[in-house]
Amino acid sequence: MKYIILLPFILIFSSAFSQEKQIKKEKWHWNNKVKQDTVIGYCQVLKVENVLYISGAVTTDITPEGIAAVYNDLKASLASFGATFENVVKENLYTTDIEEMKKLNYVRKKYYNKDFPAATWIQIQRLYMPEAKLEIELIAHLPK
């Protein structure tokens, strides 16, 4: 008898505290009407709640111009949901030449205006695009 009484409470509390079965995802992919690339299988920006996950932007040149081009692409990705570099909380940088990136870090710093995110820099042997030398991905938080 006590199990019959407990069953409704268990059902009510389990549904009240359960998570949604699916998360709401909003996507942006380089101003394309198709919000994701189905050939490679990714989208440039994925928004879940107030968090933006930004896929890596790449360059074939580790030069001031090449680095600026990457950060300008990231700026467009952030702007797709009304964000700026002030919203960035995490940066992952992958390069085939970490020493050259260290020398040219002043280019990157201009975009953050002295408000730097948590960052990880990794030297790798190669990126997805064989000719690419630098790829940067971001995580940004939007105000609630």
What does this structure look like?
With 144 residues, this protein is of the alpha+beta class. The protein has one domain (26-141): 2-Layer Sandwich (60s Ribosomal Protein L30, Chain: A), CATH 3.30.1330. It is 32% helix and 27% strand. It has helices at residues 2-17, 64-79, 98-103, 105-112, and strands at 25-28, 45-48, 51-59, 88-95, 118-123, 134-141. A 6-stranded mixed β-sheet has the order 1-2-3-6-4-5, covered by helices on one side. Strand 2 (45-48) and strand 3 form a beta hairpin. The mean pLDDT is 88.
- Strand order, largest beta sheet: 1-2-3-6-4-5
User: CATH homologous superfamily, by name?
Assistant: RutC-like
Query: How much helix, percentage-wise, in residues?
Result: 25-40%
CATH T-level fold name: 60s Ribosomal Protein L30, Chain: A
Q: Structural class of the secondary structure composition?
A: alpha+beta
Number of structural domains? 1
The shape is globular
Q: What integer is the average pLDDT?
A: 88
β-strand percent reads 25-35%
Provide the low-confidence segments as ranges.
none
- Which sequence of SSEs, written as H and E, runs from N to C? HEEEHEHHEE
CATH classification class: Alpha Beta
Number of helices: 4
The CATH architecture name reads 2-Layer Sandwich
Number of strands: 6
Most strands sheet: 6 strands, mixed
| Gyration radius from CA atoms, angstroms | 21 Å
Which features characterize this protein?
single chain, 144 residues, alpha+beta, 60s Ribosomal Protein L30, Chain: A, six-stranded mixed beta sheet
